[in-house]
Amino acid sequence: MAQARVKARARGESPFGERFAVFAECLLTGVWIAVACLGLVTYPAAFAAGARHLRHRTGHLAGGLGEFVADFRAALRGGWVVGLAGWAAAATVWVDVRAARGGIPGGAFVGTVGLCALLGAVVALLRAAAVWTPDARWRALLADAGRRTLLDPAGSFLILAGPAVLAVSAWVVAPLAVPALGAVVAAAVAVEERSRRR
User: Fold this and answer.
1) Are 33 and 181 within 8 A, CB to CB?
2) Could you tell me the superkingdom of the organism this chain comes from (predicted)?
3) Who has the most CB within 10 Å: 1, 13, 124, 194?
4) Cβ atoms of residues 65 and 80 within 8 Å
């Protein structure tokens, strides 16, 4: 990040201008991610491509929509299975919560555990997407991200705040949820960078 600042200053950009450009890029990336998520099981690949684009942007490397599309296609090779598994996990938690509301003995405990597990899976997925590269395998990425989710609770909480902000944005003004997707991915990228430096 320090090298990026030096490069930006060499080009004559002010620190405010550089930060605003990154913020604008996050919003644009959110739109790209939203379009790429329309396939329902494509969301892991969309987040991975968005995260890689933002890493390139903050590193002042070349990139754009063409690179995002190429990364999305590469991430989709194994990412669609992860997306399908995510929907299956969400459906399982939904059944658990319905059982808890139905008054089944122990249902409240099972529902709470299922909801916590789903939130942990969301954080692990965002962490995995934040470090994805075209030669990475999703299984290994998710295993490492799961460990980091447990070993870095502060970072996990920060990443979990992203979807919470996204939900509030969608509740207040629904169209804001689309560009806010980029901010969620940017938060995951920032937490992973912080974790790597530590």
Assistant:
1) yes
2) Bacteria
3) 124
4) no
Amino acid symbol at 156? S
Would you state the structure tokens that stand for residue 191, as one six-digit string?
């937490």
**Contact assessment for residue 182 and residue 27, using Cβ atoms and an 8 Å cutoff:** yes
Taking only the tens of pLDDT, the chain with its 198 residues reads: 444 444 545 455 677 677 778 888 999 999 999 999 998 999 999 999 999 999 998 887 877 899 999 999 999 999 999 999 999 999 998 988 887 788 788 777 888 888 899 999 999 999 999 999 999 999 999 999 999 999 999 999 999 988 888 888 788 888 888 888 998 999 999 999 988 887
**Residue 116 identity:** C
Give the single-character DSSP code of 176.
G
Q: Look at residues 69, 22, 27 and name the one whose alpha carbon lies nearest to residue 48.
A: 69
146 burial type by CB count under 10 A (0-12 exposed, 13-18 middle, 19+ buried): middle
Instruction: Identify which of 11, 72, 78, 1 has the alpha carbon closest to the alpha carbon of residue 38.
Output: 72
Cα–Cα distance list, 125 to 79, 121, 165 (Å): 10, 6, 17
Q: Quote the tokens at residue 106.
A: 């122990």
Q: Taking a C-beta distance cutoff of 8 angstroms, is the pair 29, 182 a contact?
A: yes
Alpha carbon distance 45, 174 (integer Å):
23
HSE-up (13 A, CA, CB side) for residue 116: 7
